[in-house]
Amino acid sequence: MEDCIFCKIVKGDIPSIKVYENERVLAFEDISPISTGHTLIIPKTHAENLFEMTEEDLKAVILASKKVAGAIRTALSPEGIAVLQLNGRGVNQVVMHYHMHLVPRTAGDSDLPITGWEIKPGDMDAIKITGEKIAAAI
User: Fold this and answer.
1) Is 38 designated active site?
2) Strand ranges for the chain from DSSP E
3) What pTM was estimated for this model as a whole?
4) Are the C-beta atoms of 102 and 65 separated by less than 8 Å?
5) Assign residue 30 a region: left if phi > 0, alpha if psi is -120 to 50, beta otherwise?
6) Which domain holds residue 100?
7) CATH number of the structural domain spanning residue 106
8) Deepest in the core among 8, 18, 115, 136, taking most CB within 10 A?
9) What is the pLDDT, as a whole number, of residue 115?
């Protein structure tokens, strides 16, 4: 897609700090990092979100994420790595090209809102109904 910033990065029209690349994916440092080592993994073929991804590209992104996360662990020794992926403007996806975030976390880092929710029991009847609806849609 010609106006997509990530497609331009894949083509080399926009510079990036590449950390990994293969025939299907590219991993590079986020230029607005949440933390040191915040890395993005994208498919080289444009897909706006999870719903548009091919299974082959999705597998490639997941496998690259594992490889890059291991390298982040070796290089930076974080206490953990948040793996985040957002689909749609309603969840604050800003660049409309599928991308996986690897966000290293260390002691003293502030909570990421998505990782800091209050754990409280849900309504099991409502959860069952929702689960049944999703299972039926599959």
Assistant:
1) no
2) 18-21, 25-29, 39-43, 80-84, 100-105
3) 0.88
4) yes
5) beta
6) 5-137
7) 3.30.428.10
8) 8
9) 63
Q: What is the DSSP string of 23-49?
A: SSEEEEE-SS-SSTT-EEEEESS--SS
Total domains, the chain: 1
Strand 100-105: give its sheet, edge to edge: 18-21, 25-29, 39-43, 100-105, 80-84
Strands 80-84 and 39-43: unpaired
Catalytic residue among 38, 97, 99, 101: 99
d(CA 128, CA 123): 9
